[in-house]
Amino acid sequence: MGLLSEYGYRWEIESGYRSIKRFMAATTSKNFVLRFFYFAFACLLYSVWRAVDLLV
Fold first, then answer.
1. Who contacts 30 (Cβ-Cβ below 8 Å, separation ≥6)?
2. Hey, where are the domains in the chain?
3. pLDDT tens-place string over residues 32-45
4. SS3 42
5. Measured between alpha carbons, how far is 17 from 1 in angstroms, rounded to an integer?
6. Cβ contacts of residue 34 below 8 Å, gap of 6+?
7. Residue 39: CB partners within 8 Å, gap ≥ 6?
8. 0.70 surpassed by pTM
């Protein structure tokens, strides 16, 4: 039963990932380090945005 109750969080995770894409810079680079940096930076911006949204 524990797995079934946690499955409900899947929607929140998927919608959060979709929201992170709004913060990502568009790139056609094949450089993994650059693409990872863009993803990590987008995650940081998304986290800050969520924190501000919760505080305000």
1. none
2. 2-55
3. 999 999 889 988 99
4. helix
5. 26
6. 27
7. 20, 24
8. no
